[in-house]
Design goal:
Layout: H1 7-18, H2 22-35, H3 43-65, E1 83-87, H4 94-101, E2 119-125, E3 128-134, H5 147-153, E4 156-162, H6 167-180, E5 183-186, E6 199-208, H7 215-226, E7 231-234, H8 243-253, E8 256-262, E9 269-277, H9 282-289, H10 291-296, E10 299-303, E11 309-313, E12 323-328
Parallel strand pairs: 1-3, 1-4, 4-6, 5-6, 6-7, 8-12
Antiparallel strand pairs: 2-3, 8-9, 10-11, 10-12
Helix pairs in contact: 1-2, 2-3
Bound molecules: guanosine-5'-triphosphate (GTP) and magnesium ion.
Magnesium ion is lined by residues 94-95, 114-115.
Length: 329
């Protein structure tokens, strides 16, 4: 730290770190700026604070436009077919992954703690969109109080580790840190029993930077350690290799399916699938189209995997990914 900053500065910085809304962050940064002695030695720091305040003000404006009120950092409104929190230790390549998979341009830099706030962006997968949320790093030094909540609300977490050095240690640190906040990362998700405050979050472990020389051996060690409990995959976000597999695995882990609808005598609408959870029935499809459809539904016809070519099925018939449904009211 340059320029002998007074203790009040660090107190304000602590408030910034612990802020749970964008507005509180702006307030704390303004305080830091006001407290800071103004001379040559602090020029860079002053400029950095001003830049961060301006960026946050833009984010607040953006959120207000979307109809949001207070900009809770731990709550990202869900969009698309599923919400995936991209989490991990500093510098693992979380932002590089989001950059490679979406149209967003989060900052990617060779030093840790580049990302400071969550940022959502859409990842196209075939004919649907999956929401990725880039997040600041998890570490045992700086704890962001709002981050566990964001992860607990997501449909899936992708734990990104750097295959270049000790990915086992990185993954274990993140798992332990989350466990301390009663957030249990695991391979299968599941519901908490309601008795304990623990929330189970389904998680994939993603080894990034598999272009590095030590990556393959480290990946094997990572798989030996966590492969029983988690799905593990590897890719290079920078070289854009292995990313198709990443998309497919994310889609599968979300446990969602797509159903298309058709009206009698017409061609199916293959543009806009309805996205439902695995295990959904014809009745669930009807309900997701219109509330009244569910009560009026008599039966459906279904086209899908080889088994079905327009057969009539009951309301409780389970649908599969890719099925085409004709509802009869
Ligand atoms: N060799 C290699 N480097 C990568 C890869 N992906 C990212 N990097 C580099 O790793 C560094 C960190 O990338 P970021 O995307 O900023 O990492 P992050 O996890 O978002 O970091 P924080 O926001 O600080 O937590 C950058 O220098 C990237 O260029 C990769 O696939 N291979
Ligand atoms: Mg980042």
């Amino acid at each position: 730290m340059p320029a002998n900053l007074p203790p009040q500065y660090f107190a304000a910085e602590q408030r910034w770190r612990e802020a749970s809304t964008l507005e509180e962050q702006i307030e704390a940064l303004r305080e830091m700026l006001a407290i800071m002695p103004k001379h040559k030695g602090t020029d860079k720091l002053q400029a950095d604070l001003k830049r961060r305040i301006a960026k946050l003000q833009r984010e607040v404006k953006e959120q207000r436009k979307k109809g949001g009120h207070r900009s809770q950092l731990g709550y990202v409104p869900k969009e698309g077919a599923g919400q995936v929190a991209v989490i991990g230790p500093p510098n693992a390549g979380k932002s590089a992954l989001v950059r490679a998979m979406t149209h967003a341009h989060p900052d990617v830099a060779p030093y840790p703690f580049t990302t400071q706030n969550p940022a959502a962006a859409m990842m196209p997968y075939e004919d649907i969109q999956i929401q990725l949320v880039d997040t600041p790093p998890i570490s045992d030094q700086y704890k962001l109080p709002w981050l566990p909540n964001l992860i607990r609300l997501a449909d899936l977490a992708v734990l990104v580790v750097d295959l270049g050095h000790d990915p086992i240690g990185q993954a274990q640190m993140v798992i332990d840190e989350m466990e301390e906040t009663s957030t249990h990362l695991n391979g299968s998700g599941g519901k908490s029993n309601g008795q304990e405050p623990i929330v189970l979050v389904k998680t994939i472990i993603a080894g990034n930077k598999d272009d590095l020389p030590q990556a393959l051996e480290n990946f094997h060690q990572l798989s030996d350690k966590f492969g029983q409990d988690f799905q593990i995959l590897s890719f290079s976000a920078q070289k854009r290799e292995g990313l198709e597999n990443f998309k497919t695995k994310v889609f599968q882990a979300l446990e969602i399916l797509r159903v298309y609808t058709k009206e009698p005598g017409k061609k199916p609408d293959l543009e806009q699938p309805y996205v439902l959870k695995h295990g959904s029935t014809v009745l669930d499809v009807a309900a997701s189209i219109h509330r009244d459809f569910a009560s009026q539904l008599r039966y459906a016809r279904i086209w899908g995997s080889e088994k079905y070519q327009g057969q009539s099925v009951q309301k409780n018939h389970r649908v599969e990914d890719g099925d085409i449904i004709e509802l009869h009211l």
